Amino acid sequence: MTVPAPSFAGALTTRWRRTADTVSGALMRVLLRGAGGAVAAVAVAQLHDAHDPGVLCLLRRFTGIPCPGCGSTTVFIEAGHGNWVAALAANPVTVAVAVGLLVAPLGPGRWWWQLTNSRRNALILAALAASWAWQLNRLGVYRP
User: Fold this and answer.
1) 3-state secondary structure string, 44-57?
2) 107: phi > 0 → left, psi -120 to 50 → alpha, else beta; which?
């Protein structure tokens, strides 16, 4: 019985899995995530420059009240333009989550999955509450 030769994609997949717990593998994953995020941010910024769709959040569009995720698209638009301070001001929680996802292969990803479900849920709930408070203040919803 003849065993088929591994394909190029199969060989890459095997090598990718083998390097999962190495420093060089973690750095490669961070580099690829960063490059992908940068390409996406620049693409969103260019698309926004060509056609500004206005407010995307349905809650904010119909009620005037922002949701906890409001400003997330603006984060990527501003990052795509290189305006890091404006990106951070739009939604700091989205920036923190994006940085966390970027560096997850270096160790924080393991920390996250070692938490109990109730701890993870509590952190997510706290992040959503902080984000919503930030958006309500930023957009002037509860100012006197």
Assistant:
1) HHHHHHHCCCCCCC
2) left
Using left for φ > 0, alpha for ψ between -120 and 50, and beta otherwise, residue 64 falls in: left
Cα–Cα distance measured from residue 128 to residue 134, given in angstroms and rounded to the nearest whole number: 10
pTM for the predicted model, two decimal places? 0.77
**Strands, E assignment, 5-142:** none
CA distance 98 to 75: 10
Counting DSSP H helices and E strands in the chain, the numbers are 8, 0
Dist. CA 25–CA 6, nearest whole Å = 22
Q: For the segment 82-141, what is each residue's pLDDT rounded down to a tens digit?
A: 999 999 999 999 999 999 999 988 888 888 889 999 999 999 999 999 999 998 888 887
pLDDT tens digit sequence for 18-27: 777 788 888 8
Q: Which candidate, 105, 131, 90, places its Cα nearest to that of 23?
A: 105
CA atoms within 13 A on the CB side of 21: 2
> Token digits for 98?
């994006």
